[in-house]
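Posting this for the archive.
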Amino acid sequence: MSRRSKTRRAAARPAPAPLAQHPAVVLPLGAMLLAGSMSALAQTASPAETTLKTVTVKAQAEPEEIKAKTTLRATETTIGKGQQALRDIPQTVTVMTEMLLDDRNLDDFREVLKATAGVTFQAGETGEEDVRLRGFSLGQAGDIYVDGLKDAPLIERDTFNLDRVEVLKGSASMLFGKGSTGGVVNQVSKQPFLMDQSEVSATVGSGKSIRLTGDFNIQTGEDAALRLNAMKHAADNGGATVDKTGVAGTYRWGIGQRDEFSVGLYHLETDGTPLYNHPWFLTDGNEIIPSLPAGNYYGLASDYLRTETSYINFSHKHRFSADSELKTTVRHGQYERDLWASVVRFASGTTIDNINDATVITRTPKGRIGYSDLTQVQSDFTNKFELLGKQHDLIAGVDLSIEDAQRNNSFAGTSSGLTTTVGTPNDGDVSTVVRADPILNTFKTTNLGLYAQDTVALTDTFKLVGGLRYDRFKSTYVTNACDPVQTLEIEDGLWSPRLGVMFQPNATSSYYASYGTSYNTSGDTYGYSINACAADGSNNAKIINTPPEKSRNFEIGGKFEVFEDRGTLGVALFRSEKYNERNTDSDSAATQMLLSGKRHATGMEFNFAGRLTPRWDLFYNHTWIPSAKIDESNVVLNATGTGAQVKGDRPGLTPKHSASLWTTYLVTDRLRLGMGLNYRSEQNPEGSRHITAPAFTTYDAMAEYNVSEKTSLKLNVTNLTNELYADALYRGFYVPGAERRVELTIKTTF
């Protein structure tokens, strides 16, 4: 039976079946009964009777990797270092399972993040998006991970090899080292399991899209398995093309044994034409008016976005006992990004009143290029033990990362002079101007981190969490465009504490309060942007030697098992503070070294994932931030009241409300229907305090039909009403949200 078929049939069960219908339960129960009968027989048998040998009966449990495909709910996570129950983590954690990714056809990593409340996007000058969580940057701070190890910035990502995506909200430097105030995103890769199970799917849809995926799990021995995942994806959004090829393979042996090993390879390559930006118009009240259709591409046919990710991964897990293990992971990766795109603008004099099909659009080239070699070693020790009459849950570890990177964050080329009009998108024009090879600045950094955290059960109901981490960070920056070449260095040693208390009166409820910190080193965050050439003591040196940004997060909340343990509900009140922050534009080298001082975001998180009834599944998360303000700032309000946010303003890209909903209902044993929405209230672009992007809601729908035990057909409609809205924002332009998309997927398992 296919995994997908299992998913649907599991959802169809109106009630738990009797024990007699569950072999996994019956077999151990039968073994116990047999043992009891033999024990009684032995007590009454005469000496002449024969004693039978002990019989061991094993039940084959369904692997967790298959169970994860059948539910929107997660009860455990690895984002807190080691395998932990969600109820034992005193912070908000949102987990998007493989079922959610499959149901909503969330192939692109950005689309996954859009299904997470509290996430917004800044559109960069050179096409990339900086992800914000609770209004704080994740992308610049390097808070995106794969299996607990840092992922490289500025690369394209895909979900073809993901089991789930975990989002830890709030400061988390005790666990991960330098990072943002907003939180951490961890991508969890698919792992081999002890079963032969394969799945292939094909998707066709609007925008000339076609996507092929294969997931092959092969058990190669009693405790060994191989898993291969492959993907090919091509689409054309009115000229904004994408061509992706991905392959990932992992071999795992010693599964469940004292020593367990795995080795894996990953490769993702993209080659496309980016939908860079659309210029905006404003109402009299300075509200953004998206005016161009989301599917219109106005760049040049010679524009491109090429990225490549390749890494090898080796892991060893040694189990000292059922409650104690040491896991060590080594990864070496190479990451490349080369973007050459057109900055699209309306011709001078264009207004909302005179725009028409003949309106001229200019196209100015701009690019970004970067290469990174990243080597990481991480070793985590977990141990449960009793000391002084108290139960302890210890996690401790060491991690080392070495990065050697080359960057040019923003470079312009000679203008081609090629223009187009509003009425002629995707006109096929090709620039013959040859792009000169840009001069690359270099960045070398080494970071060593040591951490330990202990969760102590003070009583049967109270737990105390305490953790401390020390990081030693050293970087060297070389600005090769300078004559003479300019070399700058920075070195920091920083401590990151974490405290929490949990009250767990029963197995279905957990209340907590927590405090955590985070920091960003100045050079690591902004060093790539150093392009100016000047003497020692210049802005460059000031940028490098600016003290680290520091943050803290306070949170109180509760996590509850509801609907007869079929669902998990989380509610939390938080306050995130950055008290040594640059709130100036990160693209402006003249002001990067200035510290804005302080800002905060205070609000609530709501999360639910699980099954309301045996046929009805629901995933919902909502972030409400009623209070967000720049408390101290170096930015001076200009005479017109425009420009960057100043003291007293609400920070840009921090909407009061953001929410995501997905729900499915099993209508019959074969037919399942789903619908969802993403909502974001109004917000300001960063750097444009007087401008507002209006609120929007997009709706999605799904219908899935099981043709047979092994094959299913699924129809998805994304952005059902074809809402036109400003998704990613920047000064002067926006990136529109994707237009309506219709996709049909056929999937089979064997």
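The longest strand covers residues 360-387. The helical segments are 3-12, 23-44, 64-67, 98-103, 109-114, 173-176, 522-526, 539-545.
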